[in-house]
Amino acid sequence: MIRFLVPIVCLVLFFVEPIFGLFSPLSIGGSFYYVVPRFLILFLIFLTVFYELRHALFYGLFFGLLYDVFYIDIIGLYSFLYPAVCLIAAYFFKKIPQNLLSATLLALGLLIAMEVALYLFFQLIGLTDAPAGTFLTSRLWPTLIANALYLGLLGWVFRSMMVTQDPQRGTKFGLY
Amino acid sequence: MPQFLSNKRLILLLIGVILLVALISLTLRDRGQVSLPEEIVKEAVGAGQSVFSRPAHFVTGVFDNIDSLINTFEENRLLKARLEEFAGVQAEVTDLRSENEELKELVGKEEDLREYNPIQAVVIARNPDQWEEKIILNRGTNHGVKENMAVMTAGGLIGKVTIVTPTTSTVELVTTQNPNYRVSAMVLGEDDVFGLIEGYDAERRELLLKRIDFSIDLEEGDQVVSSGLGGIFPKGIVIGEITEVTIDEFGLTKLAYVKPAADFSMLNHVVIADRLVPEVDGEDNGVTEDEES
């Protein structure tokens, strides 16, 4: 069943992201906060650590490419970042205690790394000139909080969806 | 054999990185054009996205309705007070309109930069990573949308169309950091003052109106509208109002901060302006300097 469930969940998360993007920027007390929904990549990290890396890499590449073509118009950015983040997740998850909390923390850590990488990239090509302080306060923290909330609500759903399918898979990890 | 395996992996990785860099630089160079596979992907994703955005707009619509219901009493009182002014203003408008038409006939002027054909569109998505301020609309070349057309809400100008496919179009908002994004604008007053909207101050959340003649005095609160002289936008779309006037970095011309009139969060229904006067090729940054001098 998970064979059908994973692509459906990916597709729904992919389409829901820009809808949550419509609410942003949030203005609270006169200052604006950018909340970037990163639902899909967080799901893919969970897929990597609790199910299988190869599936995550494939879906990461596919949806990363869609993301690039439809929203960013720079092909190769997310289609590289999504699989790369999954690879790093698989590498690190072998070295830490393997439970829901550690997976959530790992996913949020990788999210920070990805946001910083994107910030550096967009600064390099001149699409943003925001100083690092502004990036931290108006973008990174709100994004992190919102996505932590999302993982807190749905993380256990994702895990039970993946682990109960095949108990052997829950403990099998590796690069191919 | 582990040595061989890692070598093979290394080579694969290197090829991957080279391919990636090549792809990124290639697509960065001509971002305005869309190739056929890109267009197909955009069409397909756009169709799926409109399915998802419809219920979302419905839900936000319900909340908006509740919100406006709460404010109804207050608004009603304000509007009643306005109503009395309105009758006078309306009479003046019809008078001015007929006078304007008579005068136009007198000089034999038929084309007007102000006139445009509105194309109604719905926002189906906003670029979720928000590094670039972009929205995607559910109208495309099939409905007469062309590149560089102005996009606005009831509040005022919000951006221009950058990419069109048959049924979707991508709009770059005026709040972008893109240095090549210009809109020819003018400040309304006794004499119209021309300048270019060029750039956006992300911290003040205000647009920059540049290249204003140094000898001209501008005041805070003056209204800024599109001038129509750039060749693509119609004339008279509200952009915002001036909040501060300073001197630009070279000290030769003036620079004004313009607070945008439109609200950029929670965009839903927008209008694409298809100007009736034939458009000029290129971006909306035509001939303002000549007009100034």
UniProtKB/TrEMBL annotation, chain A:
Matches recorded under InterPro entries: Cell_shape_determining_MreD
Localisation per UniProt entry: Cell membrane
Domain of life: Bacteria
Coiled-coil annotated residue ranges, if any: none
Membrane association type: Multi-pass membrane protein
GO cellular component assignments: plasma membrane
Key words, A-Z: Cell membrane, Cell shape, Membrane, Transmembrane, Transmembrane helix
GO biological process: regulation of cell shape
The name this protein goes by in its record: Rod shape-determining protein MreD
Organism the protein comes from: Planococcus maritimus
